[in-house]
Protein backbone atom coordinates (compact mmCIF):
# COMPACT_ATOMS: atom_id res chain seq x y z
CA UNK A 1 0.00 0.00 0.00
CA UNK A 2 1.27 3.43 -0.87
CA UNK A 3 2.04 5.95 1.85
CA UNK A 4 -1.00 7.39 3.57
CA UNK A 5 -2.08 10.74 2.13
CA UNK A 6 -4.50 12.59 4.40
CA UNK A 7 -7.62 14.07 2.92
CA UNK A 8 -8.59 17.37 4.53
CA UNK A 9 -11.83 19.26 4.01
CA UNK A 10 -11.42 22.99 4.53
CA UNK A 11 -14.32 25.38 5.16
CA UNK A 12 -13.02 28.89 4.47
CA UNK A 13 -14.76 32.20 4.97
CA UNK A 14 -15.21 34.26 1.84
CA UNK A 15 -13.67 37.46 3.19
CA UNK A 16 -10.47 36.37 4.86
CA UNK A 17 -9.16 32.82 4.72
CA UNK A 18 -10.51 32.04 1.25
CA UNK A 19 -8.88 35.22 -0.02
CA UNK A 20 -5.74 34.19 1.86
CA UNK A 21 -5.79 30.82 0.08
CA UNK A 22 -6.30 32.63 -3.19
CA UNK A 23 -3.31 34.85 -2.46
CA UNK A 24 -1.21 31.76 -1.71
CA UNK A 25 -2.22 30.41 -5.11
CA UNK A 26 -1.70 33.57 -7.13
CA UNK A 27 1.64 34.05 -5.39
CA UNK A 28 2.62 30.55 -6.54
CA UNK A 29 3.29 29.37 -3.00
CA UNK A 30 3.58 25.62 -2.66
CA UNK A 31 1.46 23.69 -0.19
CA UNK A 32 0.35 20.05 -0.17
CA UNK A 33 -2.58 19.23 -2.45
CA UNK A 34 -4.38 17.28 0.30
CA UNK A 35 -6.83 20.06 1.02
CA UNK A 36 -10.30 20.31 -0.55
CA UNK A 37 -11.63 23.81 -0.07
CA UNK A 38 -15.29 24.73 0.38
CA UNK A 39 -16.03 28.44 0.44
CA UNK A 40 -18.55 29.86 2.91
CA UNK A 41 -19.66 33.41 3.41
CA UNK A 42 -18.60 33.26 7.06
CA UNK A 43 -17.08 30.77 9.48
CA UNK A 44 -20.10 31.56 11.64
CA UNK A 45 -22.32 30.16 8.90
CA UNK A 46 -20.88 26.68 9.29
CA UNK A 47 -23.26 24.16 10.80
CA UNK A 48 -21.13 21.61 12.71
CA UNK A 49 -23.24 18.91 11.06
CA UNK A 50 -21.21 19.40 7.87
CA UNK A 51 -17.97 18.96 9.79
CA UNK A 52 -19.35 15.77 11.27
CA UNK A 53 -20.56 14.60 7.89
CA UNK A 54 -17.06 14.98 6.48
CA UNK A 55 -15.46 13.12 9.41
CA UNK A 56 -18.05 10.31 9.48
CA UNK A 57 -17.62 9.82 5.74
CA UNK A 58 -13.89 9.40 6.17
CA UNK A 59 -12.20 12.80 5.80
CA UNK A 60 -9.03 12.61 7.86
CA UNK A 61 -9.44 16.12 9.21
CA UNK A 62 -11.47 19.29 8.83
CA UNK A 63 -10.03 22.78 8.73
CA UNK A 64 -12.15 25.84 9.47
CA UNK A 65 -10.70 29.21 8.53
CA UNK A 66 -12.11 32.61 9.48
CA UNK A 67 -11.19 36.25 9.91
CA UNK A 68 -9.05 37.28 12.86
CA UNK A 69 -10.98 38.17 16.03
CA UNK A 70 -12.36 41.68 15.59
CA UNK A 71 -12.12 41.50 11.80
CA UNK A 72 -15.25 39.49 10.95
CA UNK A 73 -17.06 40.91 7.95
CA UNK A 74 -20.28 40.30 9.87
CA UNK A 75 -18.94 41.63 13.20
CA UNK A 76 -19.07 38.46 15.30
CA UNK A 77 -19.47 35.36 13.10
CA UNK A 78 -15.99 34.10 13.91
CA UNK A 79 -16.57 34.36 17.68
CA UNK A 80 -19.74 32.32 17.31
CA UNK A 81 -17.93 29.80 15.13
CA UNK A 82 -15.36 29.46 17.90
CA UNK A 83 -18.04 28.51 20.44
CA UNK A 84 -19.54 25.99 18.02
CA UNK A 85 -16.16 24.42 17.41
CA UNK A 86 -15.58 24.30 21.18
CA UNK A 87 -18.85 22.37 21.57
CA UNK A 88 -18.06 20.11 18.62
CA UNK A 89 -14.57 19.29 19.90
CA UNK A 90 -15.94 18.68 23.39
CA UNK A 91 -18.52 16.22 22.04
CA UNK A 92 -16.00 14.47 19.79
CA UNK A 93 -13.60 14.10 22.71
CA UNK A 94 -16.38 12.63 24.86
CA UNK A 95 -16.98 10.05 22.15
CA UNK A 96 -13.33 9.10 22.10
CA UNK A 97 -12.69 10.75 18.72
CA UNK A 98 -9.53 12.83 18.46
CA UNK A 99 -10.71 16.48 18.54
CA UNK A 100 -7.42 17.58 16.97
CA UNK A 101 -8.77 16.39 13.66
CA UNK A 102 -10.81 19.60 13.67
CA UNK A 103 -8.75 22.78 13.33
CA UNK A 104 -9.95 26.34 13.65
CA UNK A 105 -7.56 29.08 12.55
CA UNK A 106 -7.76 32.76 11.74
CA UNK A 107 -6.06 33.72 8.48
CA UNK A 108 -6.58 37.07 6.79
CA UNK A 109 -6.76 37.92 3.09
CA UNK A 110 -3.17 39.22 3.17
CA UNK A 111 -1.76 36.12 4.85
CA UNK A 112 -1.22 33.83 1.87
CA UNK A 113 2.03 32.62 3.35
CA UNK A 114 0.36 31.80 6.67
CA UNK A 115 -2.29 29.82 4.81
CA UNK A 116 0.28 27.80 2.89
CA UNK A 117 2.35 27.20 6.04
CA UNK A 118 -0.70 26.21 8.09
CA UNK A 119 -1.77 23.70 5.44
CA UNK A 120 1.72 22.24 5.31
CA UNK A 121 1.82 21.86 9.09
CA UNK A 122 -1.67 20.42 9.24
CA UNK A 123 -1.03 17.83 6.56
CA UNK A 124 2.15 16.75 8.35
CA UNK A 125 0.39 16.45 11.70
CA UNK A 126 -2.58 14.55 10.31
CA UNK A 127 -0.28 12.27 8.38
CA UNK A 128 1.46 11.50 11.66
CA UNK A 129 -1.90 10.70 13.27
CA UNK A 130 -2.76 8.26 10.52
CA UNK A 131 -6.07 7.69 8.75
CA UNK A 132 -9.37 8.61 10.35
CA UNK A 133 -10.47 5.40 12.13
CA UNK A 134 -14.05 5.97 10.94
CA UNK A 135 -12.96 5.40 7.35
CA UNK A 136 -13.11 1.64 7.84
CA UNK A 137 -16.31 1.65 9.90
CA UNK A 138 -19.25 0.79 7.69
CA UNK A 139 -21.78 1.33 10.44
CA UNK A 140 -21.51 5.11 10.73
CA UNK B 1 -43.16 40.30 45.42
CA UNK B 2 -44.13 36.72 46.17
CA UNK B 3 -45.77 35.70 49.41
CA UNK B 4 -46.29 32.29 50.92
CA UNK B 5 -49.84 31.16 51.54
CA UNK B 6 -51.80 27.98 52.17
CA UNK B 7 -54.72 26.27 50.50
CA UNK B 8 -56.95 24.51 52.97
CA UNK B 9 -57.44 20.80 52.20
CA UNK B 10 -60.78 19.37 53.29
CA UNK B 11 -61.20 15.68 54.14
CA UNK B 12 -57.74 14.87 52.81
CA UNK B 13 -58.78 15.79 49.25
CA UNK B 14 -55.55 17.39 48.09
CA UNK B 15 -56.48 17.32 44.41
CA UNK B 16 -59.83 18.90 45.23
CA UNK B 17 -58.13 21.81 46.97
CA UNK B 18 -55.78 22.28 44.04
CA UNK B 19 -58.68 22.13 41.58
CA UNK B 20 -60.51 24.72 43.68
CA UNK B 21 -57.52 27.06 43.49
CA UNK B 22 -57.21 26.71 39.71
CA UNK B 23 -60.98 27.09 39.28
CA UNK B 24 -60.83 30.25 41.37
CA UNK B 25 -58.20 31.74 39.08
CA UNK B 26 -60.58 31.32 36.15
CA UNK B 27 -63.76 32.34 37.96
CA UNK B 28 -62.24 35.50 39.41
CA UNK B 29 -60.93 36.39 35.99
CA UNK B 30 -57.30 36.47 37.15
CA UNK B 31 -56.70 34.36 34.05
CA UNK B 32 -59.06 33.75 31.14
CA UNK B 33 -57.60 30.45 29.98
CA UNK B 34 -55.75 27.67 31.74
CA UNK B 35 -53.42 24.99 30.39
CA UNK B 36 -53.74 22.17 32.87
CA UNK B 37 -53.38 18.36 32.89
CA UNK B 38 -56.70 16.53 33.24
CA UNK B 39 -57.63 12.90 33.42
CA UNK B 40 -59.09 11.57 30.18
CA UNK B 41 -62.63 10.14 30.47
CA UNK B 42 -61.22 6.62 30.04
CA UNK B 43 -59.28 7.20 33.24
CA UNK B 44 -55.96 5.76 32.13
CA UNK B 45 -54.09 8.86 31.06
CA UNK B 46 -53.57 12.47 31.99
CA UNK B 47 -53.29 14.97 29.17
CA UNK B 48 -52.88 18.71 28.96
CA UNK B 49 -56.06 20.65 28.25
CA UNK B 50 -56.60 24.29 27.42
CA UNK B 51 -59.62 25.35 29.46
CA UNK B 52 -61.58 28.58 29.11
CA UNK B 53 -64.74 27.51 30.97
CA UNK B 54 -64.24 26.66 34.65
CA UNK B 55 -67.11 24.19 34.38
CA UNK B 56 -64.92 22.08 32.07
CA UNK B 57 -62.30 21.76 34.78
CA UNK B 58 -63.74 18.40 35.69
CA UNK B 59 -60.79 16.19 36.44
CA UNK B 60 -57.68 18.35 36.69
CA UNK B 61 -54.68 16.46 38.03
CA UNK B 62 -51.51 18.54 37.74
CA UNK B 63 -49.76 16.19 40.17
CA UNK B 64 -50.23 13.02 38.10
CA UNK B 65 -46.91 11.19 37.71
CA UNK B 66 -46.99 10.97 33.93
CA UNK B 67 -45.67 13.18 31.13
CA UNK B 68 -47.16 12.20 27.76
CA UNK B 69 -46.03 15.45 26.16
CA UNK B 70 -43.66 18.26 27.06
CA UNK B 71 -45.91 21.18 27.92
CA UNK B 72 -43.17 23.66 27.03
CA UNK B 73 -44.01 22.80 23.42
CA UNK B 74 -47.68 23.47 24.06
CA UNK B 75 -46.90 26.81 25.67
CA UNK B 76 -44.85 27.60 22.59
CA UNK B 77 -47.86 26.75 20.40
CA UNK B 78 -50.26 28.97 22.33
CA UNK B 79 -47.96 31.94 22.94
CA UNK B 80 -45.50 32.24 20.05
CA UNK B 81 -47.74 34.49 17.98
CA UNK B 82 -49.60 36.24 20.76
CA UNK B 83 -51.75 35.30 23.73
CA UNK B 84 -55.41 36.20 23.96
CA UNK B 85 -56.15 37.52 27.43
CA UNK B 86 -54.10 36.08 30.26
CA UNK B 87 -53.33 32.37 30.23
CA UNK B 88 -52.25 30.26 33.19
CA UNK B 89 -50.00 27.27 32.52
CA UNK B 90 -49.40 24.50 35.03
CA UNK B 91 -45.95 23.00 34.61
CA UNK B 92 -43.64 20.48 36.19
CA UNK B 93 -40.04 21.52 36.71
CA UNK B 94 -38.63 20.06 33.48
CA UNK B 95 -41.48 21.62 31.51
CA UNK B 96 -40.78 25.04 33.05
CA UNK B 97 -37.06 24.71 32.42
CA UNK B 98 -37.66 23.71 28.79
CA UNK B 99 -40.00 26.67 28.47
CA UNK B 100 -37.28 29.02 29.73
CA UNK B 101 -35.04 27.71 26.95
CA UNK B 102 -37.78 28.07 24.33
CA UNK B 103 -38.40 31.67 25.40
CA UNK B 104 -34.70 32.41 24.96
CA UNK B 105 -34.83 30.66 21.58
CA UNK B 106 -37.71 33.01 20.74
CA UNK B 107 -40.17 30.15 20.33
CA UNK B 108 -42.47 31.12 23.20
CA UNK B 109 -43.47 34.27 25.07
CA UNK B 110 -44.26 34.87 28.70
CA UNK B 111 -46.08 38.19 28.48
CA UNK B 112 -49.67 37.57 29.54
CA UNK B 113 -48.73 34.15 30.83
CA UNK B 114 -49.12 33.18 34.48
CA UNK B 115 -46.70 30.33 35.05
CA UNK B 116 -47.74 27.94 37.79
CA UNK B 117 -44.97 25.54 38.73
CA UNK B 118 -45.71 22.48 40.79
CA UNK B 119 -43.41 20.06 42.62
CA UNK B 120 -42.87 16.89 40.62
CA UNK B 121 -43.13 13.59 42.45
CA UNK B 122 -41.62 11.61 39.54
CA UNK B 123 -43.28 10.26 36.41
CA UNK B 124 -44.01 6.84 34.95
CA UNK B 125 -43.92 5.90 31.29
CA UNK B 126 -47.37 6.47 29.77
CA UNK B 127 -47.98 2.72 29.36
CA UNK B 128 -47.07 2.04 33.01
CA UNK B 129 -49.29 4.85 34.25
CA UNK B 130 -52.14 3.46 32.15
CA UNK B 131 -51.53 -0.08 33.42
CA UNK B 132 -51.63 1.08 37.05
CA UNK B 133 -54.75 3.15 36.46
CA UNK B 134 -56.51 0.22 34.83
CA UNK B 135 -55.80 -1.84 37.94
CA UNK B 136 -57.81 0.74 39.88
CA UNK B 137 -54.70 2.23 41.49
CA UNK B 138 -54.32 6.00 41.65
CA UNK B 139 -50.63 6.75 41.06
CA UNK B 140 -51.32 10.34 42.13
CA UNK B 141 -52.74 9.39 45.54
CA UNK B 142 -49.98 6.86 46.14
CA UNK B 143 -47.29 9.47 45.67
CA UNK B 144 -49.12 12.26 47.51
CA UNK B 145 -49.02 10.15 50.66
CA UNK B 146 -45.21 9.96 50.29
CA UNK B 147 -44.69 13.64 49.54
CA UNK B 148 -44.23 14.74 53.12
CA UNK B 149 -41.28 12.45 53.81
CA UNK B 150 -39.88 12.90 50.30
CA UNK B 151 -39.25 9.16 49.96
CA UNK B 152 -40.88 8.99 46.55
CA UNK B 153 -41.11 5.36 45.51
CA UNK B 154 -42.83 3.92 42.46
CA UNK B 155 -45.52 1.27 42.77
CA UNK B 156 -44.07 -2.19 43.38
CA UNK B 157 -42.97 -3.80 40.13
CA UNK B 158 -42.81 -0.45 38.32
CA UNK B 159 -40.12 2.18 37.91
CA UNK B 160 -40.09 5.89 37.26
CA UNK B 161 -38.68 7.08 33.96
CA UNK B 162 -34.87 7.06 34.00
CA UNK B 163 -34.79 10.83 33.55
CA UNK B 164 -36.89 11.23 36.71
CA UNK B 165 -34.73 8.85 38.72
CA UNK B 166 -31.79 11.17 38.18
CA UNK B 167 -33.64 14.49 38.20
CA UNK B 168 -32.05 16.91 40.62
CA UNK B 169 -34.69 19.58 40.00
CA UNK B 170 -37.97 18.30 41.46
CA UNK B 171 -38.95 21.87 42.31
CA UNK B 172 -39.54 24.49 39.60
CA UNK B 173 -37.71 27.72 40.43
CA UNK B 174 -38.78 31.10 39.13
CA UNK B 175 -42.39 30.52 38.09
CA UNK B 176 -44.97 33.20 38.99
CA UNK B 177 -46.82 30.78 41.26
CA UNK B 178 -45.11 27.86 42.94
CA UNK B 179 -47.11 25.00 44.42
CA UNK B 180 -45.23 22.97 47.00
CA UNK B 181 -45.94 19.35 47.85
CA UNK B 182 -42.66 17.81 48.97
CA UNK B 183 -42.05 18.11 52.71
CA UNK B 184 -45.62 19.15 53.53
CA UNK B 185 -48.53 17.21 54.94
CA UNK B 186 -50.66 17.68 51.85
CA UNK B 187 -53.63 15.93 53.38
CA UNK B 188 -54.13 19.07 55.51
CA UNK B 189 -52.90 22.00 53.45
CA UNK B 190 -51.02 22.87 50.27
CA UNK B 191 -48.31 25.51 50.47
CA UNK B 192 -47.78 27.91 47.65
CA UNK B 193 -45.88 31.05 46.75
CA UNK B 194 -47.69 33.61 44.65
CA UNK B 195 -47.77 37.35 44.01
CA UNK B 196 -49.12 39.25 47.03
CA UNK B 197 -51.97 40.79 45.07
CA UNK B 198 -53.20 37.38 43.92
CA UNK B 199 -53.13 35.96 47.42
CA UNK B 200 -55.12 38.94 48.68
CA UNK B 201 -57.61 38.65 45.82
CA UNK B 202 -58.15 34.97 46.52
CA UNK B 203 -58.31 35.54 50.28
CA UNK B 204 -55.77 32.81 51.05
CA UNK B 205 -54.25 32.26 54.48
CA UNK B 206 -50.72 33.65 54.63
CA UNK B 207 -48.08 31.37 56.16
CA UNK B 208 -44.38 30.78 56.57
CA UNK B 209 -41.87 28.28 55.26
CA UNK B 210 -40.67 25.31 57.31
CA UNK B 211 -37.21 23.90 57.78
CA UNK B 212 -38.72 20.44 57.31
CA UNK B 213 -39.27 20.97 53.56
CA UNK B 214 -35.72 22.21 53.06
CA UNK B 215 -34.34 19.13 54.80
CA UNK B 216 -36.55 16.68 52.89
CA UNK B 217 -35.65 18.35 49.59
CA UNK B 218 -31.95 18.29 50.39
CA UNK B 219 -32.08 14.56 51.00
CA UNK B 220 -34.18 13.86 47.92
CA UNK B 221 -31.88 15.90 45.67
CA UNK B 222 -28.74 14.29 47.13
CA UNK B 223 -30.20 10.87 46.36
CA UNK B 224 -31.08 11.91 42.79
CA UNK B 225 -27.60 13.34 42.23
CA UNK B 226 -26.07 10.07 43.41
CA UNK B 227 -28.25 8.16 40.92
CA UNK B 228 -27.38 10.64 38.18
CA UNK B 229 -23.66 10.34 38.77
CA UNK B 230 -23.91 6.55 38.79
CA UNK B 231 -25.93 6.34 35.56
CA UNK B 232 -23.86 8.91 33.71
CA UNK B 233 -20.69 7.25 35.00
CA UNK B 234 -21.87 3.90 33.66
CA UNK B 235 -22.61 5.47 30.29
CA UNK B 236 -19.21 7.16 30.12
CA UNK B 237 -17.45 3.94 31.05
CA UNK B 238 -19.25 2.17 28.20
CA UNK B 239 -18.77 4.82 25.53
CA UNK B 240 -15.04 5.29 25.14
CA UNK B 241 -14.90 5.42 21.34
CA UNK B 242 -17.09 5.72 18.27
CA UNK B 243 -17.63 1.95 17.85
CA UNK B 244 -18.95 1.89 21.43
CA UNK B 245 -21.21 4.84 20.62
CA UNK B 246 -22.42 2.97 17.55
CA UNK B 247 -23.21 0.01 19.78
CA UNK B 248 -25.38 2.29 21.94
CA UNK B 249 -27.37 3.22 18.86
CA UNK B 250 -27.18 -0.15 17.10
CA UNK B 251 -30.95 -0.67 17.17
CA UNK B 252 -31.80 2.90 16.12
CA UNK B 253 -34.50 2.92 13.46
CA UNK B 254 -33.85 6.57 12.68
CA UNK B 255 -37.55 7.27 13.07
CA UNK B 256 -36.79 10.75 14.46
CA UNK B 257 -39.21 10.20 17.36
CA UNK B 258 -36.61 11.49 19.84
CA UNK B 259 -36.43 14.71 17.88
CA UNK B 260 -40.20 15.06 17.63
CA UNK B 261 -40.61 14.56 21.38
CA UNK B 262 -37.78 16.92 22.28
CA UNK B 263 -39.02 20.29 23.54
CA UNK B 264 -35.82 22.05 22.51
CA UNK B 265 -35.72 20.76 18.90
CA UNK B 266 -37.97 23.47 17.57
CA UNK B 267 -36.82 23.92 13.94
CA UNK B 268 -39.76 23.86 11.56
CA UNK B 269 -37.44 22.73 8.80
CA UNK B 270 -35.00 20.27 10.30
CA UNK B 271 -31.78 19.69 8.38
CA UNK B 272 -32.25 15.94 8.88
CA UNK B 273 -35.74 15.90 7.42
CA UNK B 274 -35.15 18.11 4.40
CA UNK B 275 -33.35 17.45 1.17
CA UNK B 276 -29.87 18.15 2.56
CA UNK B 277 -29.12 14.50 3.21
CA UNK B 278 -31.30 13.10 0.45
CA UNK B 279 -28.31 12.36 -1.74
CA UNK B 280 -28.25 11.72 -5.47
CA UNK B 281 -28.41 7.99 -6.17
CA UNK B 282 -24.85 7.66 -7.56
CA UNK B 283 -23.48 9.10 -4.30
CA UNK B 284 -24.46 5.97 -2.36
CA UNK B 285 -22.47 3.81 -4.77
CA UNK B 286 -19.44 6.06 -4.37
CA UNK B 287 -19.58 5.65 -0.60
CA UNK B 288 -20.21 1.93 -0.84
CA UNK B 289 -17.17 1.54 -3.08
CA UNK B 290 -15.04 3.75 -0.83
CA UNK B 291 -15.83 1.89 2.38
CA UNK B 292 -16.67 -1.50 0.94
CA UNK B 293 -20.03 -1.33 2.69
CA UNK B 294 -22.19 1.37 4.24
CA UNK B 295 -25.06 1.19 6.68
CA UNK B 296 -28.39 1.98 5.05
CA UNK B 297 -30.14 4.27 5.51
CA UNK B 298 -27.08 6.48 5.85
CA UNK B 299 -26.45 9.27 8.31
CA UNK B 300 -27.90 7.61 11.41
CA UNK B 301 -24.99 8.45 13.67
CA UNK B 302 -24.78 11.85 12.00
CA UNK B 303 -28.35 12.46 13.08
CA UNK B 304 -27.59 11.85 16.77
CA UNK B 305 -24.25 13.66 16.78
CA UNK B 306 -25.77 16.53 14.82
CA UNK B 307 -28.66 16.85 17.22
CA UNK B 308 -26.22 16.80 20.13
CA UNK B 309 -24.33 19.68 18.58
CA UNK B 310 -27.46 21.65 17.87
CA UNK B 311 -29.31 21.45 21.15
CA UNK B 312 -27.41 19.72 23.93
CA UNK B 313 -26.42 23.06 25.46
CA UNK B 314 -30.11 23.65 26.18
CA UNK B 315 -31.06 20.06 27.09
CA UNK B 316 -32.99 20.10 30.37
CA UNK B 317 -32.93 16.31 30.70
CA UNK B 318 -36.68 15.71 30.62
CA UNK B 319 -35.99 12.34 28.99
CA UNK B 320 -38.97 12.44 26.64
CA UNK B 321 -36.59 11.33 23.87
CA UNK B 322 -36.01 8.07 25.74
CA UNK B 323 -39.74 7.66 26.36
CA UNK B 324 -40.46 8.25 22.68
CA UNK B 325 -37.89 5.74 21.42
CA UNK B 326 -39.65 2.67 20.02
CA UNK B 327 -36.62 0.46 20.67
CA UNK B 328 -35.83 1.81 24.13
CA UNK B 329 -32.49 3.48 23.40
CA UNK B 330 -31.12 5.55 26.30
CA UNK B 331 -31.17 8.75 24.22
CA UNK B 332 -31.87 10.94 27.22
CA UNK B 333 -28.95 9.50 29.18
CA UNK B 334 -26.61 10.18 26.25
CA UNK B 335 -27.84 13.75 26.10
CA UNK B 336 -27.51 14.28 29.84
CA UNK B 337 -24.00 12.82 29.93
CA UNK B 338 -22.80 14.85 26.96
CA UNK B 339 -24.82 17.90 28.00
CA UNK B 340 -23.29 18.00 31.45
CA UNK B 341 -19.81 18.58 30.01
CA UNK B 342 -20.86 20.89 27.19
CA UNK B 343 -22.91 23.03 29.56
CA UNK B 344 -20.01 23.14 32.02
CA UNK B 345 -17.86 24.59 29.25
CA UNK B 346 -19.92 27.78 29.45
CA UNK B 347 -21.07 27.41 33.08
CA UNK B 348 -24.56 27.26 31.66
CA UNK B 349 -27.50 25.62 33.40
CA UNK B 350 -30.39 25.24 30.97
CA UNK B 351 -33.67 26.48 32.35
CA UNK B 352 -32.08 28.23 35.31
CA UNK B 353 -32.78 31.79 34.32
CA UNK B 354 -34.19 33.87 31.51
CA UNK B 355 -31.22 36.18 31.98
CA UNK B 356 -28.46 33.62 31.24
CA UNK B 357 -27.63 34.00 27.56
CA UNK B 358 -27.80 30.92 25.33
CA UNK B 359 -24.21 29.67 25.00
CA UNK B 360 -24.37 29.39 21.21
CA UNK B 361 -26.00 32.76 20.72
CA UNK B 362 -23.36 34.73 22.53
CA UNK B 363 -19.57 34.89 22.99
CA UNK B 364 -16.78 36.62 24.84
CA UNK B 365 -13.92 38.11 22.90
CA UNK B 366 -11.29 36.88 25.32
CA UNK B 367 -12.34 33.24 25.61
CA UNK B 368 -11.27 29.94 24.02
CA UNK B 369 -8.13 31.49 22.59
CA UNK B 370 -6.39 28.13 22.53
CA UNK B 371 -8.83 27.07 19.78
CA UNK B 372 -7.89 29.71 17.26
Structure description:
The complex is a heterodimer of chains A (140) and B (372). With 140 residues, chain A is of the alpha/beta class. Helix content of chain A is 39%, strand content 16%. Chain A contains four helices and four strands. Chain A is globular and about 40 Å long. The model of chain A has no long low-confidence stretch (mean pLDDT 95). With 372 residues, chain B is of the alpha/beta class. Chain B has two domains: 2-229, no CATH class; 240-371, no CATH class. Chain B contains 14 helices and eight strands. Chain B has an eight-stranded mixed beta sheet, sandwiched between helices. Chain B is globular. The model of chain B has no long low-confidence stretch (mean pLDDT 94). Chain A binds chain B through residues 47-49, 52-53, 56-58, 64, 66, 69-70, 76, 79-80, 82-91, 94-97, 103-106, 133-140, and chain B through 236, 239-246, 250, 271, 277, 287, 290-295, 299-302, 305-306, 308-310, 312-313, 337-338, 341-342, 345-346, 359-365, 367-368, 371-372.
